[in-house]
Amino acid sequence: QVQLVESGGGLVQAGGSLRLSCAASGRTFNNYYMGWFRQAPGKEREFVAAISWSSGSTYYADSVKGRFTISRDNVKITVYLQMNSLKPEDTAVYYCGAGRNLRFAGGYWGQGTQVTVSS
Question: How far does CA 9 lie from the centroid of its chain?
Fold first, then answer.
């Protein structure tokens, strides 16, 4: 059974930092993308960042470029999202996902972790 377990969310002031983790288990992800989407209240889920498990190539939404960094640990099968210079508009539930494309369509999702940035 594939599981993605997120951790690291919380409350932070604007300008602060948080690091999210997503520990994966239950299969190999060699040909997968893994990363993060987020969903704010009343809004659709949107792409944040992803990493190719095989090549390490990274992809970011324009809104987070230069502030967020995605990385992976091949041994721990864990993906990280380092979030710096956080803004109130980054407030959302962040979902870890894994799939064969950048939409993670037909793939796997975690339960989500809340990130709240106060102004």
Answer: 11
Q: pLDDT tens per residue, the chain (119 residues)?
A: 999 999 999 999 999 999 999 999 998 898 999 999 999 999 999 999 999 999 999 999 999 999 999 999 999 999 999 999 999 999 999 999 999 999 998 899 999 999 999 99
66: left (phi over 0), alpha (psi -120 to 50) or beta: left
Phi and psi of 105, rounded to 5°?
-65, 135
Measured between alpha carbons, how far is 98 from 109 in angstroms, rounded to an integer?
7
67-97 residues labelled b (16+ CB within 10 A) or e (exposed) = ebebebeeeebbbbbebeebeeebbbbbbbb
**b/e map 40-61, b = 16+ CB within 10 Å:** eeeeeeebbbbbbbeeeeeebe
Which tokens in the block code for residue 84? Answer: 């710096």
Which burial class, exposed, middle or buried, applies to 20 when counting CB atoms under 10 A from its CB (0-12, 13-18, 19+)?
buried
